[in-house]
Model the fold of this input.
Amino acid sequence: MAKQVRAIRTRQTILEAAAQVFEKQGYQAATITDILKVAGVTKGALYFHFQSKEELAMGVFDAQEPPQRVPPQDLKLQELVDVGVLFIHRMRTSLLARAGVRLSMDQQAHSLDRRGPFLRWRESTLELLAAAKEHGELLPHVNPAESADLYVGAFAGVQAVSQIMSNYEDLDRRYAALQKHVLPSIAVPSVLAALDFSPDRAARLALESSPPEPGSEARYAQRTADLARPASVG
Done:
């Protein structure tokens, strides 16, 4: 057991060292020697866990995945917003996440297959948009697949600009602006009005780790129906 724990720690140390080097130098300029110096491990230890620089990069990519699960919400569009909110929070606290973003958008990484993170972001986004469509949260004309492609491309662009302009310090503001411009074109107005974009949402979401309560699906369906129903006039 102790040997297994040491192996896990060594692997994590190597990944964090790789992330530090990749974020600073980019994929092409980074070398195994650079990573070994930062990690403080032997070449044999590194190659036991990762056979190449490409495998190291793929390991770092895993940290750029969208959160596997966000706290369940009454609205699937709120969950869509929250996926990005929590990912931005993770980027501010995780070197691995920042390095994953840097690698996925590194135009000099010609030999590295960078499609994986974008494909997985699209899959996650499409799943939430399809559920929102099914529950009446989207306008009738909206195509979830097209909207998912737009979201992934726009979010990647926002990250790239934020990294250049402020080293991600303004990413939450830019992300909120993106949502406020895109969502009105796809969301039912009453649903749009119910979405929460408050600045402290990431911190609150991080604390919400309890499983959904019994009957939450029925309450979700009723809440969605209520929001989608046109408001009475007068």
User: Anything to note?
Assistant: The chain has a mean pLDDT of 84. Residues 63-227 form a domain with the Tetracycline Repressor; domain 2 fold (CATH 1.10.357).
